[in-house]
Amino acid sequence: MMAVRRTHIAFDLWICVCLFLFNHSHSFYLPGVAPEDFQKGDLLKVKVNKLTSIKTQLPYSYYSLPYCKPEKIVDSAENLGEVLRGDRIENSPYVFNMREPQMCKVACRITLTAKTAKEFKEKINDEYRVNMILDNLPLVVPITRLDQESSTVYQHGFRVGLRGQYAGTKEEKYFIHNHLAFTVRFHKDPQTETARIVGFEVKPFSYSVLIFPLVFAHICVIILVYSDEISVKHEYEGDWSDKTRLTTCDAHAKRAVTNSEAPQEVEDKQEIIFTYDVEFVESNVKWAYRWDTYLLMADDQIHWFSIVNSLMIVLFLSGMVAMIMLRTLYRDISKYNQLETQEEAQEETGWKLVHGDVFRPPTNSDLLCVYVGTGVQFFGMILITMLFAVLGFLSPSNRGGLMTAMLLLWVFMGIFAGYSSARLYKMFKGTEWKSITLRTAFMFPASVFAVFFVLNALIWGEKSSGAVPFGTMFALVVLWFGISVPLVFVGGYVGFKKPALEDPVKTNKIPRQIPEQAWYMNSVFSILIGGILPFGAVFIELFFILTSIWLHQFYYIFGFLFIVFAILIVTCAEITIVLCYFQLCSEDYLWWWRSYLTSGSSALYLFLYAAFYFFTKLEITKPVSGVLYFGYMLIVSYSFFVLTGTIGFYACFWFTRLIYSSVKID
């Protein structure tokens, strides 16, 4: 009863901790970069980033289209994560002066050819968006949702253009967004009169230029478009020169672009003039909190409600499983310890009967050691990444920082992979520790790298900026061979030098025959059932993560993600222990691989859900994009299998050693 009471207290404490974390689950972040103060009139240089599309998932360089170019294109230095994300940050001809509004500023004038017109049309068809950066803040389009009062969401970048027909015609036309109305928000220091940039937007703007049906996905609807990415066919008198003044807008005459201007079509030999306005708006938002506007999304309440429901259900099931296990196991151990006579010993049934075989090394024990070591490496990487993110060290302003941190942590966690593999291998009476360490260092990374290489080749074939350059690929190989592999061998050497773990009971020389099992104890059925609960703990959060990755939405709620990760650990451990206990009670002692596969099978459900998400939420248009999606999700699912399988294995490993060391074995 004391043990049961302690469990009640522990469970209540666990709930209190989770509720506390929930109240602080937004997490916080450290800015990541030093603030820059601007005096009035200081030069502000806008940088351009990749063109992105949720329909193709293939990023392209900004200057892959014939946009306005500066005199010399300069690439910004990028970290490893930015390169892997396909970022291509470059300078641009868009230059502002701090707190000095501009109107109808001409960026450049171009004349389309048949080739460049086709390129623009292709990008408009695939709904590509242009991404820009000012003072390390991404350009966003704020959109007010009509179904929610005072609800604003932010979209990355602005669309290249639109498709549609003029009223009364059926011919489809392409229109380019050639006029940008920027809004720079700043917070001013009243003492020094300096200012810091806290927002970079293209504000919503209702315009009636396109008073015609707009066609999206072959569905003709009349909509009201909110955007300041205006398409306007600029006009001027006489021949073009640097001093030419436009008749459609004029800064000297204070004449801005109006709603009545004709849109700019994309056709061969069409002249396009790119212009922009700049407005400066003072804000009460301080520099340290400037990212809050982007990170606090309008679907906040739905997100929290779904996560809390999932969290409470999982906590309830986990607590119930823990209580059942404790009470059942406590009764079984007490009963077995009271068996003193030979007659009573002969009548005993259940998990004690297989004590002479339960620690018999499994088939393919070498492979199990490799997978367990790799799982430990993954667990260490995820745990430390989560802790750094929750503590605010992975700032959203540090683009690519999360991916860079995960890669470096994976490399340095290799020492724990080698140590774990070698310790388990030695317990299985293995002698070739170098062989097992080598497989640990190469098997998982090599398989992932092979898939990644094929996917990268496909991206190269599409001439996308998302293709990892040869230099970066070489850097990844150096990290793998130069740091990770040696660390795995260091860990393997240390682990194998330590004394082997001793089994709590002796193993019989002759394997015991396993009796015929009931249908519900079938290994495949049991393994598939075991993966449902761990997947249920994460699938709500998985939806938001997939949306963030594939629909290019902001995601920075690592507080909740950390809670979900903790719930995943507990769920994997408990469901594996429960099914392992039932397996041993049915006198089936082949638990080693089944314990790994039970919780690891949740990866199958993750991949199936990813497929469901692909067909229901995404509008992928290119076959190569579909291959990329399933290729990357295969890598993610494989990694999830290794992680959850290792958690379940170690939980079951601890459980079996505990119960067989707690009973009397004659």
From TrEMBL:
The transmembrane residues are 205-226, 302-326, 368-394, 400-419, 440-461, 473-496, 517-550, 556-584, 596-615, 627-655
Tell where it localizes: Endosome membrane; Golgi apparatus membrane
Could you tell me the Gene Ontology terms of the biological process aspect for this record?
protein localization to membrane
The UniProt record lists the keyword Membrane = yes
What the entry lists under Pfam families is as follows: EMP70
Q: How does this protein sit in the membrane?
A: Multi-pass membrane protein
Q: Mind telling me which GO cellular component terms the entry cites? A: endosome membrane; Golgi membrane
What span is annotated as the signal peptide, if there is one? 1-27
Q: What is its main location?
A: membrane
What keywords tag this UniProt record?
Endosome, Golgi apparatus, Membrane, Signal, Transmembrane, Transmembrane helix
Please indicate if the UniProt record lists S-adenosyl-L-methionine as a keyword: no
Going by the entry's taxonomy, the superkingdom of the source organism is recorded as: Eukaryota
Entry similarity comment: Belongs to the nonaspanin (TM9SF) (TC 9.A.2) family.
Q: What name appears for this protein in its UniProt entry? A: Transmembrane 9 superfamily member
